[in-house]
Specification:
Strand order of the largest sheet: 1-7-6-5-4-3-2
CATH class: Alpha Beta
Order of helices and strands: HEHHEEEEEEH
Number of helices: 4
Helix content: 25-40%
Number of domains: 1
Number of strands: 7
Structural class: alpha+beta
Shape: globular
CATH topology: Alpha-D-Glucose-1,6-Bisphosphate, Chain A, domain 4
CATH architecture: 2-Layer Sandwich
Length: 183
């Protein structure tokens, strides 16, 4: 016998697990394809959808950079909604360095690691990285003293609508703004 609400929870977990598994497989295939392309000296010519989110934070670039990149701050703002959190963050902020943020539902029903490798880092100005599934992300920091504009552009994935992806990433950036301005 299935308890009320249990079927929808099971369905949700299957969808989330399938999504997570998809990204693991795509990441492995991307790395294999990338290695083959490098050996053959060819380039991928696929059209990609780029999504951009941005926010202006009432704080100088140096503070915004610190709060955006230090693990002790990342764990305080890196969630798209109140029912999620980031219990752990690791960040080796240098070209070739890796990062991983553990994101989990507060009720313990699901969690995943979000991570990648840094391609370019310019202190207080720019971060570019490749996510584990091969997608690229670019983050610009620009400011004029007491205000800093953070602009994130990322390659969309194919499992969720661009609107859903944009909403999620914007929510996280909005949380970052609130956290940074209140501390």
């Amino acid at each position: 016998m299935v308890l009320p609400g249990t079927l929808s929870q099971i369905t949700f977990m299957i969808v989330v697990f399938t999504h997570h598994l998809y990204h693991k497989v795509v990441g492995c295939l991307h790395r294999k394809t990338k290695n083959t392309q490098q050996k053959n000296n060819t380039m991928e010519t696929q059209n990609k959808t780029i999504i951009t989110v941005e926010n202006t934070i009432d704080a100088p670039k140096e503070k915004v950079w610190e709060y955006f990149t230090k693990p002790e701050h990342i764990t305080k703002w890196n969630n798209a909604s109140e029912d999620w959190f980031t219990p752990r963050a690791e960040n080796d902020l240098r070209v070739g360095g890796n990062f991983v943020y553990r994101m989990e539902a507060k009720d313990g029903s699901f969690g995943f690691d979000f991570g990648g490798t840094y391609d370019e880092v310019k202190n207080n100005e720019l971060i570019q990285y490749t996510i584990g599934d091969g997608r690229k992300v670019k983050i610009n920091f620009s400011g004029d003293g007491s205000k800093t504009r953070v602009t994130e552009s990322f390659e969309a994935e194919n499992m969720n609508s661009t609107e859903l992806q944009k909403t999620g990433w914007q929510s996280i950036l909005d949380n970052f703004k609130k956290y940074t301005e209140s501390n």
